[in-house]
Specification:
Helices cover 4% and strands 39% of the residues. By secondary structure, it is mostly beta strands. It has a single domain, classed as Methylamine Dehydrogenase, Chain H (7 Propeller), CATH 2.130.10.10.
């Protein structure tokens, strides 16, 4: 490779390019993997395959790289595979970076004008016998769940006509129905939103188009029994700005956060917009209905957390400094004049939550997250400087009280997003395990830890030793083997 990667925060410490596809059989284990665990922990994140065309890159601009931890009978195998997107294949053929700035086709090499720019690097979910690797500015890519072979762009056989699709759809556990949406649904910086549902066989069952209050980022959604909720954050798009070489999103500190609520199966006239003071709604824990009221649980940051999308004056928070309030919003759906009422459950700097998938959209008790606990020690001399997002704690939170049971990963380590795996299909809510990758920063490698979700403080019941360093993934999911039956 004649051109080296830049020595910038995007490509430093734990996030140096990895770029190695392959598999490892029967990873070494400290402790014992619970015998009842039978499934795959899929995760995906950005791993730039070639030095960026523009000299440096937004951390969200890397090529999608999937890891699959396959666990059965107390053993764990690992597969690592790029999503073979049109972008990746074009750059491999040219042996250089061809695509420009994040979500800015005006900066691409002329040889790839018109080629799909999808990087499929944000989330990976099971659907209709496949896994979908997803990024919110383009349609997903379908992959074989057993070989990780890329099948191609996925638009539900043309049933999804928006130009993009969320990386965070929600799946109803009982029916298998998938609910999702697209923002900027008619192209970058448009204020169009399309909302969809598809059954477990991939047949479209609902489509509605609405206008957004402003052309901002809608990274997540939630479903309850009766509604879908889209949290709109004041990271605002501008096509004119990227034409001039600027960033696609700019933080607007005077804009409201807005919770867009649509009845499932509803028409555009049924939408409601709940405005709230400027803040940055994060990833959803869960939502549920109770007596005509809709409840939504998620962490809310009181300021912008994306240093690479500052405000118009270039102001941004220092990397690693963000804090959140885990908040339960209540929306009275029987009162058209009501406003959302927030209840702060916890001030832990917690994010990247999951709930027990069997309880998505239903009343529930437990959330599983990671947090940045600044009361815990960190040794930068051994582990290197903190750049970008930093978490050091896994936790189970009682969502009725906000009380958390936590595990700290150590003063030279950091955590990645945890997922939850129930002990069995009929186990009680929360009866199961939290799985998450831990970066052993001083050793320049990683572990996969398995913790008892109801006794996090006791530490891992099993630590699966990974002899290589895994870059920071964004999201993943636990998929039991029975899902493919």
């Amino acid at each position: 490779m004649p051109t080296p990667f830049p020595k910038s925060p995007t490509f430093s410490t734990i996030d140096e390019p990895f770029r190695l596809e392959g598999s490892l059989c029967d990873l070494e284990v400290d402790g014992q993997i619970p015998a009842e665990l039978d499934g795959t922990f899929f995760r995906v994140g950005p791993d730039q395959a070639f030095p960026p065309k523009m000299g440096d890159a937004n951390p969200f601009n890397g090529d999608g790289f999937v890891t699959a931890f396959r666990i059965k009978d107390g053993h764990c195998d690992m597969q690592m595979q790029y999503v073979h997107t049109q972008r990746l294949l074009a750059e491999r053929k040219a042996r250089r970076g061809l695509f420009g700035d994040y979500r800015n086709a005006f900066t691409d090499d002329e040889s790839v004008k018109g080629l799909n720019r999808a990087v499929a690097n944000t989330n990976v979910i099971p659907h209709n016998g496949m896994i979908l690797a997803m990024k919110e500015d383009q349609p997903p890519y379908a992959m074989d769940p057993f070989t990780l072979e890329t099948k191609g762009l996925f638009t539900w056989d043309g049933q999804m006509t928006a130009t993009s699709f969320t990386a965070h759809p929600k799946i109803d556990f009982e029916t298998g129905d998938l609910y999702g949406y697209a923002y900027a649904a008619k192209g970058e910086a448009t204020d169009d939103i399309a909302i969809y549902s598809f059954d477990k066989h991939g047949r479209k069952t609902w489509e509605v188009w609405i206008k957004s209050p402003y052309p901002g980022m809608i990274h997540e959604c939630a479903i309850s029994e009766n509604y879908i909720v889209l949290p709109l954050m004041p990271q605002v798009m501008s096509l004119d700005r990227i034409r001039k070489g600027g960033i696609i999103f700019q933080w607007e500190p005077t804009y409201d956060q807005v919770y867009i609520v649509m009845p499932k199966g509803g028409d555009a006239k049924d939408v409601r917009f709940f405005h709230a003071p400027n803040a940055m709604p994060g990833h959803v824990v869960n939502a549920f209905d109770d007596g005509g009221k809709l409840y939504l649980d998620l962490p809310v940051a009181l300021d912008n957390v994306f240093w690479f999308f500052p405000d118009k004056d270039g102001k941004f928070p220092p990397p690693g400094s963000f804090g959140t309030e885990v908040t339960r919003w209540c929306f009275d759906m029987n009162d058209r004049n009501s406003k959302g009422v927030p209840n702060v459950m916890s001030t832990l700097a917690a994010e990247f939550p999951h709930c027990d998938d069997r309880y998505v959209g239903k009343p529930y008790k437990y959330g599983f997250m990671q947090a940045s606990d600044h009361t815990q020690p960190y040794d930068p001399q051994r582990a290197g400087p903190i750049m970008g997002f930093f978490f050091n704690t896994f936790l189970t939170m009682d969502m009725s009280t906000g009380k958390a049971d936590t595990w700290f990963c150590g003063d030279t380590s950091s955590t990645q997003e945890p997922v939850f795996a129930p002990k069995s299909p009929t186990a009680a809510e929360g009866e199961g395990y939290v799985l998450g990758v831990v970066n052993r920063r001083a050793e320049h490698r990683s572990d996969l830890v398995i913790l008892d979700a109801m006794n996090m403080a006791q530490g891992p019941v099993a630590t699966i030793k990974i002899p290589v360093r895994l870059k920071y993934a964004i999201h993943g999911n636990w998929v039991p083997s029975s899902a493919w039956a």
